[in-house]
Amino acid sequence: MTAPDPRANSILVGHAAAEAALAEAVRAGRLHHAWLITGPPGIGKATLAFRFARRLLAGGAGEGLFLPETHPVFRRVAAGTHADLLTVEREWDPKRKKMRGEIVVADARGVPDFLHLTPAEGGWRVVIVDGAEDLNHQAANAILKVLEEPPPRAVLLLVSAAPGRLLPTLRSRCRRLRLSPLTEAEVAGVLDRFQPGIEPAERDRLAAMAEGSPGRALALAAGNGVGLAELVSQVLENVPRLTVGRAHEVADALGRDDEAFGTFMDLLRTAVAASVRDMARGRADPDQIRLIGARPLDAWVDVWQGLCRLQDETEALHLDKRQAIVTGLGLLAGTASPV
Predict the structure, then answer these.
(1) Which domain holds residue 19?
(2) Where are the alpha helices (DSSP H) in the chain?
(3) pLDDT of 185-213, one tens digit each?
(4) How far from the centroid of its chain's Cα atoms is residue 294's Cα?
(5) Is residue 106 part of a domain?
């Protein structure tokens, strides 16, 4: 079992304070016209946005933001057929046969007109921009226009894991709602709900690896995250003695599987970042000290940035993933230049 899409998810774990703030704004009639919901990936930002939208579209009455799955508004939002809700996100590019790397102006141009329309059901008009950091400059400006003179009974919800990438003028016109990572116990509870057959030891390991993100925990569970984490640990234990031959063995083990590549690189970057952070704060364990002590801290920052660029370019341009693994492990071992 996997977690439902945010538009069809009736369950929100954690974030009680954020939900209460939104519910109180509705109850008190002090609803801001634009909200920026931020926080790390996979912690429930979009789930909260759709939960808020459903409550508004249902009339705003009741305690909290919960709406049962049997409610007509819930069903129409889940099906993407509610006339007063517009969702903007990165779209499929039929020419390149992949998801676009950004939200383009064609996707955002209709937002001002949509929000200025009279609500079809006499209540509110709501726009959710999921992944607002992906707005390109033209798309962001198209949305900015409607915030300069916001129409009545219209709400814009920007969901972003990287709000620093948004136009400052766009951020400044929104009321910001920051969501924090969940506790390991809360993440473990999500795993129990959607992966009920998982062994407790594996569940707890995944919850710890997820760093407060139930979305990440579920992705790791579906993609052999524990096994790949063991592979990352083995790789880091051999730095800086990591040979080219061993790098090719790791690449062969991963093959050309897109999900395995992405998960392995995510875990590798996370481990390097955590080691650098703990070393800088004087909290490093012996394994981290051995790893990071092999070169200056600022050199490890270059390695981490190189791994990020390598993964981004490989996934965006559909480059050879096996070669990317070999190059990335060369960065770790100091046998390759930062990309």
Answers:
(1) 6-178
(2) 16-28, 45-57, 72-79, 105-108, 111-116, 137-148, 168-172, 184-194, 200-209, 214-222, 225-237, 244-254, 258-280, 286-292, 297-317, 321-333
(3) 999 999 999 998 899 999 999 999 999 99
(4) 32
(5) yes
**Both structure tokens of 43:** 């912690």
The answer to whether residue 338 sits within a structural domain is: no
Domain final residue, candidates 123, 147, 178 = 178
CATH, residue 149: 3.40.50.300
Mean pLDDT value of segment 59-78: 87
Four-CA torsion 306, 308, 310, 311, nearest 10 degrees: 160
Query: Which pTM was predicted?
Result: 0.87
How many Å apart are CA 74 and CA 264, to the nearest integer?
37
Q: What is the DSSP letter of 85?
A: E
Q: Which two tokens stand for residue 215?
A: 């979305």
- Tokens 């008009």: give the residue: 125
Asked if residue 151 is part of any domain, the answer here is yes
Count of domains forming the chain = 2
Q: Which of 230, 224, 256 is nearest to 321 (CA)?
A: 256
Q: Are 10 and 69 in contact (CB under 8 A)?
A: yes
Between the CA of residue 10 and those of 77, 184, 235, 274, what are the distances in Å? 11, 21, 40, 33
